[in-house]
Design brief:
With about 220 residues, the chain is of the alpha/beta class. The protein is built from 3 helices and 13 strands, in the order E-E-H-E-E-H-E-H-E-E-E-E-E-E-E-E. Strands 4-3-2-1-5-6-7-13-9 form a 9-stranded mixed β-sheet. Helix 1 links the parallel strand 2 and strand 3. It is elongated.
C-alpha cells in the first residue's frame, strides 16, 4: 500500500508533480483537505483539530473524519502519520510541511526518524527522505540538485557514485556543508537498475542516519 498525506501548508500545490493514481489511501491533516480538493482528490481520511479550517461540508460518504482536541501532545501531521504507519505501507508521501513556520518544518523532518518506513516529504521545490545504513539508488526525477545532510552526529562509510562529485568511504558530520548541492549524472551501465526512467545515483553508508534532499532553485 502507498499512502499520500496532505499537510495543512502546501503553497503552490499545482506545481507539485504528483500522480494520485499511484496511491491506495489518502489522508488529509486538518486544513490539508482543502489542497486535496484543489487537485480533485477526495481523501479517505480527514484528521485534525480544525483550528485553521472548519470541517468540510459536505464530504463523500467514503471519507472518515477524526476530530482531535486542540490541546494535545502532537501535531495533526504526526497524528496522520501514526495512522498511516499502522497500515504497514510500502511508502508514504507527505505533501507540504516545508518552508512555512520553521518549527513545523523542523518538526516534520524530525518525524522521519520516528517511523522505520520509506517516507518522503515533498513540496514544489524539494523532496526529503531519511535513510538508514544500507545501499540505495536515487533517481534524478525533476530535480537539479541532490544534497546529503547528516541527521545523526555523523554518517560514516559513506560512498556516492553517479554524481558530479563522488565520495568513497567518507564521513559527514554536523558543522560542515560537504554534502550540499551535488548533481545526479547517472551511474555506469553495469550498475544500472532495470526500468529506471531517469538518471540514478548510488548511495551507501555503514553508520548513522542520512537526510537526502533533492531540490530545485
Amino acid at each position: 500500500m502507498n499512502i499520500l498525506i496532505f499537510t495543512g501548508y502546501i503553497p503552490n500545490i499545482e506545481k507539485i508533480k504528483i500522480n494520485s493514481k499511484k496511491f491506495d489511501f489518502v489522508i488529509s491533516a486538518d486544513k490539508g483537505y482543502e489542497y486535496a480538493f484543489k487537485l480533485g482528490i477526495s481523501p479517505d481520511l480527514i484528521i485534525g483539530d480544525f483550528d485553521t479550517a472548519s470541517l468540510p461540508a459536505p464530504i463523500d460518504a467514503h471519507t472518515k473524519v477524526i476530530t482531535l482536541p486542540a490541546e494535545k501532545d502532537m501535531t495533526d501531521t504526526e497524528a496522520a502519520l501514526d495512522i498511516a504507519a499502522t497500515k504497514q505501507p510500502a511508502s508514504i508521501t507527505l505533501l507540504g510541511g516545508l518552508g512555512g513556520r520553521f518549527d513545523h518544518t523542523m518538526g516534520n523532518i524530525s518525524l522521519l526518524y520516528k517511523y522505520d518506513l520509506p517516507i518522503t516529504i515533498k513540496d514544489e521545490k524539494n523532496s526529503v527522505k531519511l535513510l538508514r545504513p544500507g545501499k540505495y539508488f536515487v533517481e534524478k526525477d525533476e530535480y537539479k540538485y541532490i544534497s546529503l545532510v547528516p541527521f545523526s552526529a555523523s554518517v560514516s562509510g559513506l560512498s556516492i557514485s553517479g554524481t558530479k562529485y563522488t565520495l568513497e568511504n567518507a564521513t559527514l558530520t554536523h558543522g560542515n556543508t560537504l554534502g550540499i548541492s551535488n548533481e545526479i549524472l547517472g551511474i555506469s551501465q553495469d550498475d544500472k537498475l532495470s526500468g529506471e526512467s531517469s538518471p540514478i545515483c548510488k548511495i551507501s553508508f555503514k553508520n548513522g542516519e542520512l537526510l537526502v534532499c533533492q531540490s530545485n532553485d
